[in-house]
Amino acid sequence: MNRYNPTVQKDLSDNILSKTSYSLPVFDDDGNEINLLKVFNFDEMIEEYLIDLEIRNYSKNTVKTYNSIINDFYNYLKNEKKLYNDKHFLRSFRLYIQYLKRDKLVSQNYIYLVTVVVKKFLEHNKLYFLDDVESPKRTKSLPKSLNEKEVYNLINSIKWDNEKDNPAKIRMKTRDKLILTILYSSGLRVSELINLRVNDIDFDERTMRIRGKGDKDRVVLIDENAKKMIIDYLAIRESDNEYLIINKFNKPITSRYIQKMIKDYGNKANIQKTVTPHILRHSFATHLLKNGVDIRVIQQLLGHSSLSTTQIYTSVDMETIKTLYDKAKM
Questions:
Q1: How far apart are CA 119 and CA 134, in angstroms?
Q2: 265 in catalytic set
């Protein structure tokens, strides 16, 4: 019979179910089964996992999402009375998924995300309780995009009056217009733009070195218009901050500000869609595809490891399909 010893809790966390012969349940000195949440230090494991995600350059939003998902499940487990082995854990997870679907009415895509995140967290800690759980299918809804006229109207909704606007107002509007221009013309994620440093830009080559998801670097292009806007912005922003996009307090700008700013300008431009940083990224990819750019080039510019992801981003809109169809029939 396996005996539990509080002094070897860390060893158990490192070794149980890490493809070794160690078995569950674990017993205390009186022969009683010990709850898995006492066998493993989940608080410490969660903290170390989130630190690891940050070190691997996961975005703040992603880390925040992972943190919420893992802790919500952990808190659910705290109310489980029978949690002594891997089968109990598996059953509790399935009950949790049922609870999310039935009581919380979450989407199928959220169920998929919960399953993937919890499995990744456990496997990171060499725990294989959910090895037999397959990730549920995701619902593949096509992301929306703006047409060229809507993009033009959005960017040009930002105007300034050199006679009426004070220098601070001109700097803000110049910066905001630059944000919209780069997000669309280079297809960056909002987290990538926030972390873009001035030294990452090669003005001669018209390129930017981007640190993307999973610590992967890529090079993206900037057009002459965006290049000129960057130079103009740097000339008036009155700061030597290493980050390109900063706020009035000389700090890197936040994703929340960018999201709200884009939504506000979308309303000002009378665009009948919810305008987000992601919709600009998708518009960038869609417009490149419509203009004949090879999908593998688009994949590289977007920083996708899988071509299938790019194919979802670049779904051709119905107007383009009609145009191609009509040309083929002529």
A1: 10
A2: no
